[in-house]
Amino acid sequence: MTNLGAGVRCVTGPAAAAAYVQEARLQRGVARRLATLWRCTMANRLPPGPRLDLGGGAGALALALASKGCPPLEVVDCSVSLLRLATGLQVRPWNLERRLPVAEPALLASNFALHWLSQPLVSLDQWCQALRSGGQLLLAVPTSGSFTSWRQAAHQAAVPWTGLPLPSAQQLQEVLATHLQLHHCSLLQRRQGWPSALAFFRHLKRSDLTGGASGRLGPGELRRLDRCWPRGLQGRVTVEWEVLMVVGEKSRGVVVPP
Ligand SMILES: C[S@@+](CC[C@H](N)C(=O)[O-])C[C@H]1O[C@@H](n2cnc3c(N)ncnc32)[C@H](O)[C@@H]1O
User: Fold this and answer.
1) Would you identify the CATH topology of the domain 14-146+165-193+241-250?
2) Ligand 1: does its nearest atom lie under 6 Å from the Cβ of 142?
3) Among the listed residues 77, 244, 116, 115, the one whose alpha carbon sits nearest the alpha carbon of residue 174
């Protein structure tokens, strides 16, 4: 991996990047949904200027937006291996813990990436501030209402919660409301079933969403967690996702005649 600075948590090699692309069905589905929302709300009012897919990986959101008629986005990500898979897209290796790579962007889009940053609320605030007048923000980010069954099982089994800390939807919305007019803001709920806790953790590890949540639990802890995990259809462990979906626009400044 190219060294883009300290504290960067990124997919490291070509094999991990390819595994992510294979596993990331939920992310691709949400990207398509976000692109459709954009098409229905703000497609006809995109101002000129830089357009970025932040933490864009292999470019799922940039591609989904292109399929809805959006002019090309540049995919910005710290994982060079993932960027190599963004075929046909303009890419830029970049650590988003730093400032944005362009000034006054016209469109900032980000799918399942903000929660990876060390201070999601601060980064979101910076993104909104950076937008040019009339600039657009498209955001999908998993929030703290996710993984309720996993949390419940961890509590009952008295094992540590090993998931990635997720930002609260309410706090994110407070930041957004300070800067943007929101054309769409909703919480998408998704429920998945996995054969076992271990199968779910293997999926997380391959899709590199939590840096491998099972790695920090011993075999005994994993067995206890699995036993306590609420079951759904056919005895599968239930995994809930809560994803904040936002389509917003920075108000256009009033032009005062000279
Ligand atoms: C779950 S993936 C989502 C990728 C893509 N947006 C999608 O929808 O498939 C999270 C992405 O955030 C990127 N990422 C995490 N931390 C980052 C950072 N500090 N700077 C830039 N990218 C980062 C990862 O490399 C990865 O591509």
Assistant:
1) Rossmann fold (3.40.50)
2) no
3) 244
